[in-house]
Amino acid sequence: MVKPYLFLFTGTSGSGRKTAAHKALQGSGIAHIPSCTDRPLRDKERPDMDYRYVSKEQFDQLAAEGFFTESVRIDRHRYGIGKRYLDLALHAGNSAYLILNREGSDTIRKLYGDRAIRIFLYVDKKTVSERLESKGTSFEIINSYLDHYSEEVTYRKYCEHIIENVTIEETVMQIKAIISSYLQAN
Ligand SMILES: Nc1nc2c(ncn2[C@@H]2O[C@H](COP(=O)(O)OP(=O)(O)O)[C@@H](O)[C@H]2O)c(=O)[nH]1
Ligand SMILES: Nc1ncnc2c1ncn2[C@@H]1O[C@H](COP(=O)(O)OP(=O)(O)O)[C@@H](O)[C@H]1O
């Protein structure tokens, strides 16, 4: 039986983790485990695609009940992975993928060892700004991404795979190749 893996997409914010991961893995049978967040839904986001959106009170309640395997506060908002969703996927023997910052990736790697494969995506700061500006992203969000850039980018040396996301087609191909290498090795 294929060992179930957790593929962790991490890297600098705005590097294209969500876009590339969803594109590479749609229809693959490897399910996305969305995080819960208390941040508001942004323009063009759809509930349950990228996040499960909850109120601040609900997030507090879930955290108090021990619902999260890991959670973080980033600026004014909180993010967390529900233990139940991870267990459901792994107990069924299915690999899954998550999109996390470095703290979340580190925690999941410590908990799941070599079943957790970290794929680090990055682009340079100028490219982050240009891509997000061209999509009409607010300056508040762009600035918050850039503020975290230096601390996030250093995490790449700990990751199993590193991809510079230049063109989306090439990045998707690289992700597919990495994932196949694990699934075929079993
Ligand atoms: N540790 C952890 N990080 C998360 C989780 N969900 C999202 N993140 C990361 O939190 C960071 C902040 O996200 P945000 O600024 O809202 O930007 P987004 O990446 O466009 O959603 C991003 O690096 C996310 O990948 C989670 O459940 N746990
Ligand atoms: N290779 C690429 N070339 C151009 N734009 C890209 C590429 N990859 C992602 N993008 C765009 O960059 C922006 C940030 O991508 P996103 O997936 O939200 O990043 P992250 O999840 O890492 O914060 C989005 O507008 C996305 O469409």
Automatic annotation (TrEMBL):
The UniProt entry, under Pfam families, shows:
Guanylate_kin
Q: Which organism is it from?
A: Paenibacillus endophyticus
Among PANTHER family, the record links this protein to:
GUANYLATE KINASE, GUANYLATE KINASE-RELATED
- Entry function: Essential for recycling GMP and indirectly, cGMP.
EC number of the protein: 2.7.4.8
Q: What class of enzyme is it?
A: transferase
Protein name per the record: Guanylate kinase
Q: Which GO terms describe its molecular function?
A: GMP kinase activity
Occurrences of domain Guanylate kinase-like (ranges)? 4-180
Q: Which residues cross the membrane?
A: none
